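Job type: complex structure
Entries:
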Amino acid sequence: MTTITVQNVWKEYGERVVLESLNIEILPHAFVALVGPSGCGKTTFLRMLMSMERPTRGKILVDGEPLPPEPTAERGVVFQRYSVFPHLTVLGNVVLGQEFSGSRITGRLFGTAKRRAVDAARDIIKAVGLGEAEKKYPAQLSGGMQQRLALAQALIKRPKILLLDEPFGALDPGIRGDIHELMLKLWLETEMTVVMVTHDLPEAFRLGTRVIAFERTPRATIEPHRFGAVITHDIEVWPPKPTPSAAARNWIAHPSDRDVPMAPSIGRDAPAFVSTETVAS
Amino acid sequence: MRILNRQPDPVTRVLLPVLPFVLAVAAYAIASSARLAVNPDDKLLPGATSLLDALQRFAFSPDRRTGDYLMLDDTIASLERLLSGLAISTVIAGVVGIAVGMIPYLRTLMASILAAISLIPPLAILPIIFIAVGLGEAAKITLIVVGTAPFLLRDLAMRVQELPSEEMIKAQTLGATTWQIALRIVVPQMLPRLIDSVRLSLGSAWLFLISAEAIAAENGLGYRIFLVRRYFAMDVILPYVAWITFLAFLLDYLLRAAQRAAFPWFAMGRGR
């Protein structure tokens, strides 16, 4: 159960202000979706949570402790691309996290320790629907399967926080629906706090318990670069997330074969359509 | 139909690549027989019989003085030098290149000096090598190392930096230390790329090998062709050049085959 506290955080690159005076309290087991137009700083904010960037001013606290200056195993991450290691098989990618903690010198496990790690990895590989593909390399997987793998790889470390940087942005709509079901199930089964950046408003409302919009509002005609993006909307999603349906669980046990090789998504930056059924606040 | 849309049919696809070779051999045969018709003792373009005769003498019969098969001895001597030189270069490049590519402090420390070193023409420091390590095997191997290591090293350091930063972050979120990232993420992904760079370095490695052998050696393929040059022995030089070319091709082929066999994921990632 992890709380993230953002206190008066500013991010500036030289003269240019990207984000200004952010104050957010993210509650334990929240699923926060960050939305906003391109260049509004939502990815910058996520990179600060990952310790890839540091705030220019202000503090980010996790359970009251300052964020460590470099990425740690407490904060798992899934990127849109390059989240998995191309030289390792599906099984190798998922076992890797345990091998790092089990063997400081060689980063490899052998014998019974390896067998135990492999068993644990197989469980989670099955849970994300990749049971048949454990010997395949990422290049042999479709985009959707690669992102499932990335989730499995991150979740085996049982991170307290999961950070998602447009994880499903490059997937076809059909596959996206399937992986959303999986994401919700995994989130409900764990206690982790999730922060996700997305371009896709329906996705934000479907997955999130809270949707935060960043926007650079026009406030000055002179020196506009001195004004960064601020939070323009902070929406509790209602009704609260239900437990996964029997149908969803069934689907996870029998993944469909709808995944097709990764196709470049078209018009990702187009204004997303907000479904009125999902926005009730 | 536009010429850029025309595709050779399967038979042409097999025959067409052979054609330039056939033409080259035919042109040589015509020129050679024309010269030999004027002067039967012509040495510049020896005919097939004298080429085969020279090959017979150097490759398939023992030397009258020493009892050795000269071409075999030369090949072994040259390959030993070439492969030791390349092996040393590869190890240096692997260790230093990956460290420099991964660690910002090392990169800042080494980038300029490495750029400067790589600009020194290796043949220009050949005299220094001869003075420092003598005229023996060490000098020839050192020249190959000096000639190929800087390129391999800088190339590999750049390849390391080309790895997506997402991979480095992801590894850290899986709890990896710098050492573990090097061992499990960077080195395995660099090995096939290192093979590619070594393949590209083969040409210059041969260049430095033959130069060193031409200047100071008692055997070796380069030594032999420069030795018989004194007697205008084109009948020896041409088979040797063909043999050297074949060896170079063979090394390249073996490296590519090893890369495919050992790193199947690498070819997949490149969409082949």
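Summary: The two ends of chain B are 29 Å apart (CA to CA). Residues 114 and 198 of chain B are 18 Å apart (CA to CA).
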